[in-house]
Amino acid sequence: MTTYKGVGVYAGRVIWPVLQMPEPIKEPRAGLKLAEGETVESASARIQAAAESVKANLLERAENAGRDGKAVLKSTSQMATDRALLKGAKKLVEKQNMAPERAIWEAASDFAQQMVALGGYMAERVTDIQDVRARIVAELTGQQAPGIPVANEPFILAATDLAPADTATLNPQQVIALITSDGGPQAHTAILARGLGLPAIVAAKGVTEIPNGTMVYVDSNAGVVDTEPGDEQREAAETYANRMPLPAFEGAGMLADGTSVPLYANVGDGKSAEKAAQLQAEGVGLLRTEFGFLGNDSEPSVETQAESYKAVFDAFPGKHIVVRTLDAGADKPLPFLNVKEEENPALGVRGFRTDWTVPGVLTRQLEAINKAAEGSDADIWVMAPMVSTTSEARAFKNMLDEVGIKMHGVMVETPAAAVNAEAILGEVDFVSIGTNDLTQYTMAADRLLGDLAHLNNPWQPAVLKMIKLTVEGAQKASVNHGVKKYVSVCGEAAADPALAVVLVGLGVDTLSMNAGAIAAVSAVLKSVTKEKAQQIAVKALSQISSAEAMAAAREELPILDQLGL
Question: How would you classify the pairing of strands 430-433 and 175-180?
Answer without folding.
Answer: unpaired
